[in-house]
Amino acid sequence: MPDILVDGKYELNGDVYIQGSKNSVLPILAASVLTYGVSVIENCPALSDVRASINILKYLGAKCSFEGNSLTIDSRNISDYKIPDNLMREMRSSSLFLGAILGRMGKAEISSPGGCELGPRPIDLHIKALSELGATVKHKGGNILLQSKNGLVGSEIHLAFPSVGATENILLASVLADGITVVTNAAKEPEIEDLADFLISAGANIEGAGSDKIVIKGVRKLFGTRHKVIPDRIVAATYISCVAATGGNINLINAVPNHIRSVISAFEEAGCEFKERDNILSVKANDRINSISTVRTLTYPAFPTDAGPQLISALSLSKGTTVFVENIFQNRFRYIDELKRFGANIKVEGKVAVVEGVESLSGTECECTDLRGGAALVVAALAANGTSKIRKTEHILRGYENIVRDLSGLGARIKYI
Ligand code: EPZ
Question: Of all protein residues, whose CA lies closest to atom 21 belonging to ligand 1?
Fold first, then answer.
């Protein structure tokens, strides 16, 4: 993958269109396995994780064509129930296909999803919930085989933790199950609502998505539909972090302020000014932001773990000290050693990072450790004085359609080399 070269520090000004949401479109692509017909997914971001999902859909027997940001999926001839190891390895969130393949084929087999850069990524909550819907679970070597010979049966499921993926797998497995499924302590992220909207438009009967209690009444069949993916709230949070770090005034086109209330209030506390009108969220940042007393990541609607690295990057240049507590993932601070190469002053103790703002950062060479850690390095490079080179940028392509194009449009001196 080409490296990214950044010349800093320049203010950001102008408009940037916010792409469709990665964490919404991935479960929706899995959901297309449940439909008999042709679906058109609009505002579909061109991401490597999307291409990995399309490879899985094609392997299962679907026909896909991706033009611009419109993805057409013909799922009528899906006939396979196994996801081969090589395709599983391309994308950890392929575990989202479990519920959909099980719902359509009566069985599903995947290689157990390895950990990822953020630490172990178990799917015990997914497996437990699918068993409660009547699936039997067998471990075959490194593979997990789920079967439901007599079809899945609706049941009451209480999630020990409001896992986003587990909630999505339950929705996917229960829409064609026999009877009613009630999920309590469900995840409330906007991506859950978007997945439910897709399924409902395909004929599913779902109430309560977006709240912590979701009721799904099984139906007999789902059909092809047309769906526009919601904007990516983490991409919006990333660009807010960029302007907070460099100063300037940008307009996020198509961002949904209600999806990032906790992010907006954190950056308001740091001194940024926001304006909302129509589908435009404007952010103004002066030269140096203030620190924020304490930031804790938690499930929605609290501050999102996926926007943490980018915020920490911006706070590296703040006046004062911020205590940042990461409560969702065990190993989300790997990028901080790379941030220190810019001159950031951050101390990590377990799940706490203490960010002492410094006057300035200096350009350096660094490499991405994971998707959002990579985005954090871009934030730092934009705000650092001098030239920076960022390697292993393939991590960034998983979640950002074209971060170089988006930021260049705001006046950043950034390019691929
Ligand atoms: C989704 O991951 C997102 N990915 C993540 O975004 C996001 O960080 C996360 O939700 C939290 O919001 C997609 O939507 C594709 P979880 P997911 O299940 O579903 C533990 C990004 O950068 N857990 O809510 O995997 C788990 O280990 C990515 O876009 C179990 O222990 O998140 C983690 O510590 C990163 N057992 C915590 O719960 C389980 O069965 C949150 O996981 C499931 C999860």
Answer: 306
Q: What is the model's pLDDT at position 91?
A: 82
Q: Could you say which architecture CATH assigns to the domain 4-19+231-416?
A: Alpha-beta prism (3.65)
Closest approach atom of ligand 1 to CA 304: 12
Residues designated catalytic? 116
| Rounded-to-integer distance, Cα 368 and Cα 32, Å | 32
171: nearest Cα among 30, 71, 22: 30
Q: Collect all residues with Cβ–Cβ distance below 8 Å to 127 and sequence separation of at least 6.
A: 137, 144, 146
Choose one of 53, 96, 117, 164 to mutate for the ligand 1 pocket test, by most ligand atoms within 8 angstroms of C-beta.
164
Class of domain 22-228: alpha beta
Q: 260 and 233 in contact (C-beta within 8 Å)?
A: yes
Task: Establish how many alpha carbons lie within 13 A of residue 285's alpha carbon, considering only the half-sphere containing its beta carbon.
Answer: 33
pTM for the predicted model, two decimal places = 0.97
- Whole-number Å distance, alpha carbon 168 to ligand 1 midpoint, is 11
Average pLDDT on 267-294 reads 96
For residue 164, report the distance from its CA to the centre of ligand 1, in Å: 6
List of long-range contacts for 261-265, beta carbons under 8 Å, 24+ apart? 261/301, 262/301, 262/302, 262/303, 262/304, 263/233, 263/236, 263/237, 263/303, 263/304, 263/307, 263/311, 264/240
Would the CATH topology of 4-19+231-416 be identical to that of 22-228? Answer: yes
**For the chain, which residues make up each domain, given as ranges?**
4-19+231-416, 22-228
pLDDT (tens digit per residue) in 366-399:
999 999 999 999 999 999 999 999 999 999 999 9
